[in-house]
Amino acid sequence: DITVNEGDVAGCDGTKAEGWRVWTPIAPNTATYAGKFDGQGHTISGLYFNNEEEDDVGIFGQLCDGGEIQNVGLKNSYFRGRNYIGGICGSNYKTGTIRNCYSEANVTGVVDSRSGADIGGVVGKNNGTVENCYNTGNVVGDKWVGGVCGYNDGTNNNCYNTGKVTGTSDV
Q: How far apart are CA 160 and CA 34, in angstroms?
């Protein structure tokens, strides 16, 4: 298990505590991840990200080209960005797969006329496959907001949400 920051990161409401490290997503909006990440049932906790100008935010920013993320849990974390924000992954493209993952993070997309779209507890925008995943964290955005996937044009199998989801349209 990996703990990046101690304290109540999920409940911080955006306020960064002294000494906390800011998380940089793996494969942020300027890159993509096409590898195979297997968390082997471990957890990552204490991730903090708060930048309303950034897209593709999560543990991973963008997943594509047959990339896989599996068997990892996200705990006690906070993500806030512009668009394509998810606990596990911001954007999952057509050939990406996310399986056996969960998120207990609070995920927020900036709510204004140009932002807050594709915000999900597990993945913000899904065009690939998400299976056996769940979310228990709070999710807030403007449009295309969901507990597991904010926007989904892919495949979801055996997934669920128990977290609170808030948005303006397409919730």
A: 25
Q: Which of 98, 97, 99, 117 is nearest to 107 (CA)?
A: 117
Q: Are 62 and 35 in contact (CB under 8 A)?
A: no
pLDDT tens-place string over residues 71-128: 999 999 999 999 999 999 999 998 999 999 999 999 999 877 667 799 999 999 999 9
Whether 75 contacts 44, CB under 8 Å: yes
Could you tell me the maximum CA-CA distance found in the chain, to the nearest angstrom? 41
Residue 49 carries which side chain, given as an amino acid letter?
A: F
Q: State which H helix or E strand residue 94 sits in.
A: none
Say which residues have a Cβ less than 8 Å from residue 15's Cβ, sequence separation at least 6.
none
What's the CA gap between 38 and 121, in Å, rounded? 19
Tokens linked to 169? 């349209």
The DSSP letter of residue 20 is P
Helix (H, G, I), strand (E, B) or coil at 81: strand
Alpha-carbon distance of 1 to 47, in angstroms, equals 13
